[in-house]
Design brief:
Layout (H helix, E strand, L loop, with lengths): L21 H32 L1 H12 L1 H28 L6 H25 L1
Length: 127
Protein backbone atom coordinates (compact mmCIF):
# COMPACT_ATOMS: atom_id res chain seq x y z
CA UNK A 1 0.00 0.00 0.00
CA UNK A 2 2.97 2.31 0.48
CA UNK A 3 3.77 2.39 -3.26
CA UNK A 4 0.34 3.63 -4.33
CA UNK A 5 0.60 6.76 -6.48
CA UNK A 6 -2.21 9.00 -5.26
CA UNK A 7 -1.04 12.19 -6.92
CA UNK A 8 -2.44 11.49 -10.39
CA UNK A 9 -5.92 10.33 -9.37
CA UNK A 10 -8.89 12.41 -8.34
CA UNK A 11 -9.90 12.07 -4.70
CA UNK A 12 -13.47 11.15 -5.59
CA UNK A 13 -15.65 10.98 -8.70
CA UNK A 14 -16.18 14.49 -9.93
CA UNK A 15 -18.48 16.37 -12.30
CA UNK A 16 -15.79 16.21 -14.99
CA UNK A 17 -15.96 12.40 -14.97
CA UNK A 18 -19.72 11.81 -14.94
CA UNK A 19 -22.14 13.18 -17.48
CA UNK A 20 -25.11 15.03 -15.98
CA UNK A 21 -28.19 12.87 -15.59
CA UNK A 22 -31.77 13.98 -15.23
CA UNK A 23 -32.04 12.47 -11.75
CA UNK A 24 -28.90 14.21 -10.49
CA UNK A 25 -29.97 17.54 -11.99
CA UNK A 26 -33.37 17.13 -10.34
CA UNK A 27 -31.74 16.46 -6.99
CA UNK A 28 -29.51 19.52 -7.37
CA UNK A 29 -32.55 21.63 -8.28
CA UNK A 30 -34.33 20.50 -5.11
CA UNK A 31 -31.39 21.80 -3.10
CA UNK A 32 -31.27 25.06 -5.07
CA UNK A 33 -35.01 25.63 -4.61
CA UNK A 34 -34.62 25.01 -0.86
CA UNK A 35 -31.96 27.71 -0.65
CA UNK A 36 -34.04 30.06 -2.82
CA UNK A 37 -37.08 29.55 -0.59
CA UNK A 38 -34.99 30.39 2.46
CA UNK A 39 -33.85 33.64 0.80
CA UNK A 40 -37.42 34.44 -0.20
CA UNK A 41 -38.55 33.94 3.39
CA UNK A 42 -36.21 36.80 4.29
CA UNK A 43 -38.10 38.93 1.75
CA UNK A 44 -41.36 38.06 3.52
CA UNK A 45 -39.82 39.12 6.84
CA UNK A 46 -38.81 42.47 5.30
CA UNK A 47 -42.36 42.90 4.01
CA UNK A 48 -43.77 42.20 7.48
CA UNK A 49 -41.28 44.61 9.05
CA UNK A 50 -42.28 47.30 6.57
CA UNK A 51 -45.93 46.80 7.56
CA UNK A 52 -45.10 47.35 11.21
CA UNK A 53 -42.61 50.20 10.78
CA UNK A 54 -44.10 52.99 8.66
CA UNK A 55 -46.47 53.79 5.84
CA UNK A 56 -43.61 54.86 3.57
CA UNK A 57 -41.69 51.61 4.08
CA UNK A 58 -44.82 49.60 3.40
CA UNK A 59 -45.54 51.68 0.30
CA UNK A 60 -42.05 50.92 -1.03
CA UNK A 61 -42.28 47.17 -0.37
CA UNK A 62 -45.85 46.98 -1.67
CA UNK A 63 -44.84 48.85 -4.83
CA UNK A 64 -41.90 46.52 -5.30
CA UNK A 65 -43.97 43.38 -4.86
CA UNK A 66 -46.74 44.64 -7.19
CA UNK A 67 -44.32 45.57 -9.98
CA UNK A 68 -43.39 43.27 -12.87
CA UNK A 69 -40.20 42.40 -10.99
CA UNK A 70 -42.20 41.44 -7.90
CA UNK A 71 -44.53 39.33 -10.05
CA UNK A 72 -41.50 37.57 -11.50
CA UNK A 73 -40.10 36.93 -8.00
CA UNK A 74 -43.44 35.62 -6.76
CA UNK A 75 -43.86 33.35 -9.80
CA UNK A 76 -40.36 31.97 -9.26
CA UNK A 77 -41.12 31.47 -5.58
CA UNK A 78 -44.32 29.62 -6.43
CA UNK A 79 -42.47 27.38 -8.89
CA UNK A 80 -39.68 26.75 -6.37
CA UNK A 81 -42.15 25.90 -3.61
CA UNK A 82 -44.06 23.43 -5.78
CA UNK A 83 -40.87 21.88 -7.18
CA UNK A 84 -39.36 21.53 -3.72
CA UNK A 85 -42.58 19.93 -2.48
CA UNK A 86 -42.46 17.42 -5.36
CA UNK A 87 -38.83 16.67 -4.51
CA UNK A 88 -39.67 15.94 -0.90
CA UNK A 89 -42.61 13.79 -2.02
CA UNK A 90 -40.29 11.86 -4.35
CA UNK A 91 -37.99 11.11 -1.42
CA UNK A 92 -40.92 9.83 0.64
CA UNK A 93 -41.85 7.51 -2.23
CA UNK A 94 -38.24 6.33 -2.43
CA UNK A 95 -38.15 5.79 1.35
CA UNK A 96 -41.05 3.36 0.99
CA UNK A 97 -39.00 1.50 -1.64
CA UNK A 98 -40.99 2.44 -4.74
CA UNK A 99 -39.78 3.84 -8.09
CA UNK A 100 -36.09 3.21 -7.40
CA UNK A 101 -35.17 1.91 -10.86
CA UNK A 102 -33.62 4.30 -13.37
CA UNK A 103 -36.55 4.56 -15.80
CA UNK A 104 -39.08 5.41 -13.11
CA UNK A 105 -36.69 7.84 -11.41
CA UNK A 106 -36.12 9.70 -14.68
CA UNK A 107 -39.86 9.74 -15.35
CA UNK A 108 -40.45 11.19 -11.87
CA UNK A 109 -37.82 13.89 -12.56
CA UNK A 110 -39.62 14.86 -15.79
CA UNK A 111 -42.96 14.92 -13.96
CA UNK A 112 -41.43 17.16 -11.29
CA UNK A 113 -40.19 19.72 -13.83
CA UNK A 114 -43.37 19.69 -15.90
CA UNK A 115 -45.76 19.45 -12.98
CA UNK A 116 -44.15 22.31 -11.11
CA UNK A 117 -44.30 24.49 -14.22
CA UNK A 118 -47.94 23.68 -14.99
CA UNK A 119 -49.06 24.13 -11.38
CA UNK A 120 -47.14 27.41 -11.02
CA UNK A 121 -48.82 28.75 -14.18
CA UNK A 122 -52.22 27.65 -12.85
CA UNK A 123 -51.57 29.38 -9.52
CA UNK A 124 -50.47 32.54 -11.36
CA UNK A 125 -53.61 32.54 -13.50
CA UNK A 126 -55.96 31.92 -10.56
CA UNK A 127 -54.31 34.34 -8.15
Amino acid sequence: MADVNRGNRPLSPHLTIYRPQLTSMSSIMVRITGIALFCLSILIVFWLLSVSSSEGAFGFMDGLMRSWFGDLILFGATWALIYHMFGRLRHVIWDFGYCLDVEKSEKMAKIMFGGATVLAILVALVV
